[in-house]
Structure formats: structure tokens, C-alpha cells
From TrEMBL:
<dbReference type="GO" id="GO:0004435">
    <property type="term" value="F:phosphatidylinositol-4,5-bisphosphate phospholipase C activity"/>
</dbReference>
<dbReference type="InterPro" id="IPR001711">
    <property type="entry name" value="PLipase_C_Pinositol-sp_Y"/>
</dbReference>
<dbReference type="InterPro" id="IPR050490">
    <property type="entry name" value="Bact_solute-bd_prot1"/>
</dbReference>
<keyword id="KW-0732">Signal</keyword>
<dbReference type="GO" id="GO:0035556">
    <property type="term" value="P:intracellular signal transduction"/>
</dbReference>
<dbReference type="Pfam" id="PF12010">
    <property type="entry name" value="DUF3502"/>
</dbReference>
<dbReference type="GO" id="GO:0006629">
    <property type="term" value="P:lipid metabolic process"/>
</dbReference>
<protein>
    <submittedName>
        <fullName>ABC transporter substrate-binding protein</fullName>
    </submittedName>
</protein>
<feature type="signal peptide">
    <location>
        <begin position="1"/>
        <end position="26"/>
    </location>
</feature>
<dbReference type="Pfam" id="PF01547">
    <property type="entry name" value="SBP_bac_1"/>
</dbReference>
<feature type="domain" description="PI-PLC Y-box">
    <location>
        <begin position="397"/>
        <end position="458"/>
    </location>
</feature>
<dbReference type="InterPro" id="IPR006059">
    <property type="entry name" value="SBP"/>
</dbReference>
<dbReference type="InterPro" id="IPR022627">
    <property type="entry name" value="DUF3502"/>
</dbReference>
């Protein structure tokens, strides 16, 4: 694997990600964070980008009309056709394209995209990220975007923090464009605030997942129509290790600053977590059939779940409250931590089967530079799904209840430049300052800038993914006896080549660190 020399040292990577874009933080409380740096750049450049796009209207009319498909996970939206029509009106003059939006429920997302890739089905834009990016690249699923970015997205490239593009390359090439958003990760819980208030739960006492159990038991005993905790495979992210490469494929490093790659399924922390999940399932603290009932959209909208695992950002509970129509409050179970996955956490790729990769890149460019196009995809049609309070603050139309607007896909973190997104009127107007503090508080991984290249172990990874899919939901929700199933799981992965994968990860990480400086 060829490592990016511009990110050759952890110090340099951290400086670029956490400091360069935060120049002057210590000197001036109004100076930019990484989020604010990108936001202010985009605020300053959005007009220029719009001018450039408007200047190209004549050129757009000379292009043949095409339809572009967009895939992202989420619940089905009643008014998606209205949003498509609104986007099409905008895109006709800009790039002479129309769009077809495909929302795939979270429970079927991975399987759906895997099948599309395996079958060679033509499609255009798709969400990818740290969990599957390197695997899909190794499979040849995505188009090399390196030259397309220069040719068809110069406005985007000019305003984007360069680390986002350079730090997400594989073998020096860009196979996806990262969403411009926060630059650190944090995991925790999203709780139903009405129930927190009703039972006077002291959420400040929740420091670990285990601390939640007495509250879950109260909900089970006193709220028979409410799911105490939505069981899912995502809970396994709460162990103190950093994933490298595809999420289903083991090979992590501890969060203590060391870089020895280990199989997380053989760590004591994972075994303790799986034991607790089995106990919670036996106590009836999960939804019915948690290993198969994986889509929580319905209970989220109905407000009939008390607690869920969630990735966290400042103010995310306010955003999700707006989307679900029920007040939520978030609880952090980890500290902010910056990894390479935070650069690749949400990205837009163009399928190798796309019939119009150039036009697809033009659309990505607009999603990063044109607020009207981006916010239509994210929030819907002005006057129908939201009304403006000010230039960048919106609220629901009068008479429309939260979560009932007809278009609330929750994809604001999945698309384009998040810092061009409108803010809801219930959000903190200082949200980007909170992002500044969030980014500044993050501990940096010693391998920021490293992206695992799975080319040499793609066959082993493919076999491991199949094994993972057979075990993960049962283990993580306690429907399998972990004492019996976990050794079987590990043994099958080892027979499929797990040790080769871990050795390759260690080799690449060691080479990355050796090249620093």
C-alpha cells in the first residue's frame, strides 16, 4: 500500500485535522474550529460556487439529459416524489439532470448494497463509510474519482479542508468524497426525555452501559408498551478499541495509544459486553426477536422505545427530536476520539456501474457548494416540509407536527457539506461553536490518516464477512449463548484467514508509522 506522505506523521495529521483548521483557538474565542473553518469557508464561497454554477447554465443546456440515482439508508419518505421534482427543477439548469432518491431501511441496507454490487446493477451515488469503504474499493465496486474531482468538482475541492480528500485516499486515489462534518467520533445513548422526566432518572449517573440497567428495568416493569432498549449489533462499538478497515472484519487497536492489532472478539471487554447483552435479553429488556427485528424507525416515530445506541455529536438530540417528533436527550459513554474513520465516516461514492460518472460528480459538487440543492435533499421542499425563520434557520410549517412533515429522512450527516445545512429553530444557534469544543476535546488516534488496503486479503475478508453476518446479530442481542457461539465464531473466522488479515493490518500500520516524519 502506498501511504500518503502528506499525512505521514500523526503530529501532522492531527495538526491538519484538529489544529490547522482551528487556527487561533487559544488566542480568540471567535476563531474557527475545524467545523467553523469549513463552515465559514463555505459561507464565503457558497456565493462564488453559486455564481460558478449559474455561469455554467448555458453549458448545462448542451448536455444530454440524464437521470441519477441516490442511495442512502433510512425510513421510507411519503413525499419523496415531491422532493425529487423540486431537485429536478434546480438541477435542470445546473447540470441537466434529474434524480431518483432511494431510501433503504437500515436493517436491509448492507444486504441491499452488497447485492447491487455483486449483480452489477447500474446505480450512481451511494453512501459509504469506514465500515465498508475499503472492502468495496478492494472489490472494485467504486469509480476512481481522483481526476473527476479536478474536472467536475473544482468549486468543491477549492473550499474543502484538504485533509478530507488526502486522508481518505487508498493507494493515493479517491474512491469517495467525504461529507464535510465533525472530525471526531463519540458513542453513547439516545433516551426518551419524556420517560426520563416521568421517572426522574438521573442521567448524569450513567457513565457506562451497565449503569443504564436499573432504568431499563423500571421501564420494563412500568411501561409495558415501551421497548426498554433497542438491541442491535452497533452496541459492540462501545468497547475501547479502534476499528480499522471494514467493520465486519476483526483487527482493532486499543484506545490507549498503542498500535498492536488484536481480534476484538477475543478481548475481555467484548466478552463482558456480550455476557451483559445475553443477560439483558433474558430479562426482556430488548424488543421482541432483536436478532431479526432490526429496523427501529417505527418505534422511533411512535416514541415507544426508551433507549438506543447512537453515535453522538453536539446537539444531535435536538436534531433527532425534530425528526422523530418526540423529545430526546443524549448521554455520552465515550470521549471524543479522532480516527481515520472520522474522515471516512460518511462518504459519497459513485458506483463503477454508473452510466454517467461525470454528471454524478457534478451533482456531488453541488451538494458541497449549493445550499439550495443540498437542503432540498436533506430537508425537502420549502413551504411544504419547512419554512424559513431566517437565512439559515428553519421551522416546521404551521399545523405540521414534528416527524409528520412527509419528508424527514435524517440524512443531513450523509450528504455533501453539512455546514451548509439549515438549522432547526430548536437547535442551539451556537451549534458550530459546540462543534469547535467537541473537536478540540478529541483525543487523536496515533494512526490518523491511515486507511487499510484490503486488496491482498479481499478473499479472506469476503469469507469473514459472511461468517460475521451469520453471528453478529445473535451475539450482540444475546439471542445466542455467547459462551458457545463466540468460540465457534472466532474459530470459523480463523479458518477463513483471520490471522492473515490481522497480520496484514499490523504490517500496514507498522509501515505507516515507520514512514512518519
Amino acid at each position: 500500500m502506498q501511504f500518503n506522505k502528506r499525512l505521514g506523521t500523526t503530529a501532522l495529521a492531527v495538526s491538519l485535522v484538529m489544529t490547522t483548521a482551528l487556527v487561533g483557538c487559544a488566542k480568540d474565542s471567535n476563531s474557527d474550529s475545524a467545523a467553523n473553518s469549513v463552515n465559514s469557508k463555505n459561507a464565503a464561497n457558497a456565493t462564488n460556487g453559486a455564481k460558478a454554477n449559474n455561469a455554467s447554465q448555458d453549458a448545462a443546456s448542451s448536455l444530454d439529459p440524464v437521470e441519477l440515482s441516490i442511495y442512502f439508508p433510512g425510513g421510507e419518505q411519503k413525499d419523496v416524489a415531491l422532493v425529487e421534482d423540486a431537485m429536478n427543477k434546480l438541477l435542470k439548469d445546473k447540470i441537466n439532470a434529474t434524480v431518483k432518491i432511494h431510501e433503504v431501511d437500515w436493517g436491509n441496507w448492507g444486504q441491499k448494497i452488497n447485492l447491487m454490487v455483486a449483480s452489477g446493477e447500474p446505480f450512481d451515488l451511494v453512501l459509504t463509510g469506514a465500515g465498508d469503504y475499503s472492502t468495496y474499493v478492494a472489490q472494485g465496486a467504486f469509480t476512481d474519482l481522483t481526476s473527476l474531482i479536478d474536472q467536475y468538482a473544482p468549486e468543491m475541492k477549492a473550499q474543502m479542508n484538504p485533509v478530507l480528500l488526502s486522508g481518505t485516499q487508498i493507494n493515493g486515489k479517491n474512491y469517495a468524497v467525504p461529507v464535510e462534518k465533525e472530525l471526531a467520533e463519540q458513542y453513547g445513548l439516545m433516551l426518551n426525555k419524556d420517560l426520563v422526566d416521568k421517572y426522574h432518572f438521573d442521567i448524569s449517573s450513567i457513565k457506562t452501559l451497565a449503569d443504564l440497567e436499573p432504568m431499563l428495568q423500571t421501564i420494563k416493569d412500568k411501561e409495558p408498551g415501551v421497548v426498554p432498549f433497542w438491541g442491535s449489533k452497533n452496541v459492540t462499538t462501545l468497547i475501547p478499541y479502534e476499528q480499522n478497515g471494514s467493520d465486519p472484519v476483526p483487527g482493532v487497536i486499543p484506545l490507549d495509544g498503542t498500535t498492536k492489532v488484536v481480534d476484538q472478539w477475543e478481548t475481555p471487554e467484548m466478552q463482558q459486553l456480550l455476557q451483559m447483552m445475553q443477560e439483558w435479553n433474558q430479562k426482556g429488556l430488548f424488543q421482541q426477536d432483536p436478532a431479526t427485528q432490526k429496523d427501529s424507525s417505527a418505534v422511533d416515530q411512535a416514541g415507544t422505545v426508551f433507549a438506543e445506541w447512537s453515535p453522538l455529536t453536539p446537539g444531535k438530540d435536538k436534531v433527532q427530536s425534530q425528526q422523530s417528533g418526540h423529545p430526546l436527550v443524549q448521554v455520552a459513554l465515550s470521549q471524543p476520539y479522532t480516527t481515520s474513520a472520522d474522515l471516512t465516516g460518511a462518504m459519497t461514492a459513485i458506483s463503477r456501474t454508473s452510466k454517467n460518472p461525470e454528471r454524478a460528480m457534478m451533482l456531488i459538487n453541488l451538494l458541497h457548494t449549493d445550499p439550495e440543492v443540498l437542503n432540498t435533499l436533506v430537508y425537502g421542499v420549502e413551504g411544504k416540509h419547512y419554512v424559513k425563520v431566517s437565512d439559515n434557520v428553519i421551522k416546521l410549517p404551521d399545523g405540521v407536527a414534528a416527524g409528520q412533515s412527509g419528508y424527514m429522512p435524517g440524512n443531513n450527516w450523509m450528504e455533501g457539506n453539512q455546514f451548509l445545512d439549515y438549522l432547526w429553530d430548536n437547535e442551539d444557534p451556537n451549534k458550530w461553536d459546540e462543534y469547535k469544543a467537541f473537536n478540540a476535546a478529541a483525543k487523536a488516534s496515533p494512526i490518523v490518516g491511515f486507511t487499510f488496503n484490503a486488496d491482498s486479503v479481499k478473499n479472506e475478508e469476503a469469507a469473514i464477512v459472511n461468517i460475521y453476518n451469520a453471528y453478529i446479530d445473535g451475539l450482540a442481542t444475546g439471542t445466542m449463548d455467547y459462551k458457545k457461539a463466540l468460540p465457534e465464531f472466532v474459530d470459523k473466522m480463523k479458518k477463513a484467514g483471520l490471522e492473515k488479515v490481522i497480520t496484514e493490518k499490523q504490517k500496514q500500520i507498522d509501515a505507516f508509522l515507520a514512514n512518519k516524519g
